[in-house]
Here is the input.
Amino acid sequence: QLQASGGGLVRAGESLTLSCAASNLTFVDYTIGWFRQVPGKEREGVSYISRRADSTFYADSVKGRFTISRDNAKRTVYLEMNSLKPEDTAVYFCAAYLGYLNGRNWHRRLNYGYWGQGTQVTVSS
Here is the structure.
């Protein structure tokens, strides 16, 4: 089970950090992805982190602004979001995959077997 939290309403240029807490999983065995979705659009991959945090990937739209990290002792993955833009407004989801993904497939949502419930991020201009 995954629980995403930390969303909220912020102004453009401000920051938020999302958390994804896991339970009932052998957390260290799972790689984690963050996705986001706006109404009427496909859910898109935002970022990914491998089991030992030795591999991370980002969507081009967030590179240089977002940072993903994990604390396996706390069974939690974080998404630090800086310099937020109105186009970052979406519901953000975390998802878990048992194994490794690479730069070509980390963003494919069908790879992920476990999903959190989503947390709303709204960025005003």
